[in-house]
């Protein structure tokens, strides 16, 4: 049987292991922090305390909106125009006024207004084309004194 020569585990070995371990940890932390900061588009609300004071009001608005029974159908057409139908009990809703804005989900571009024109079958079609990429469409739909707000992600 041959014997292997065992080298002693010295302080230099332990130092090398510790330095390598912490170098990996610090590198991963810096990389993750860089990714987090480069993709964060900003605050959702300016002041979370003030926003919390309106929470019950927002719940009441949401319940009132659900009570309307409106349901939007939002489709991005082949020509990159938004096709919008607001339905009530399976039928297109007539006499609606729509206000819409298109924004990048990470806030990389300022929001732009989207204008709709009526088409056949109660469909509303946007005048503007949606640029390639991922976008968020915020809609405010009014009919008489009723109002509903919707948000859709477009790609």
UniProtKB/TrEMBL annotation:
TM regions (residue ranges): 12-32
InterPro entries: FixH, FixH_proteobacterial
UniProt keyword annotations, A-Z: Membrane, Transmembrane, Transmembrane helix
Source domain of life: Bacteria
Pfam family, one: FixH
Name recorded for this polypeptide: Nitrogen fixation protein FixH
Source organism of this protein record: Sphingopyxis indica
């Amino acid at each position: 049987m041959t014997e292997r020569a065992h080298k002693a585990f010295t302080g230099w070995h332990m130092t090398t292991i510790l330095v390598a371990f912490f170098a990996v940890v610090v590198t991963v932390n810096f990389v993750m922090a860089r990714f987090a900061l480069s993709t964060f588009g900003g605050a959702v609300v300016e002041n979370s305390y003030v926003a919390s004071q309106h929470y019950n009001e927002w719940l009441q608005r949401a319940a009132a909106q659900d009570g309307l029974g409106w349901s939007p159908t939002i489709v991005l057409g082949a020509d990159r125009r938004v096709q919008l139908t607001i339905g009530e009990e399976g039928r297109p809703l007539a006499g609606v006024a729509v206000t819409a804005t298109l924004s990048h989900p990470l806030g990389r571009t300022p929001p732009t207004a989207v204008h709709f024109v009526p088409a056949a079958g109660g469909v509303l079609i946007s005048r503007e084309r949606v640029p390639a990429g991922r976008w968020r469409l915020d809609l405010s739909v009014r009919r008489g004194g009723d109002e509903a707000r919707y948000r859709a992600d477009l790609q």
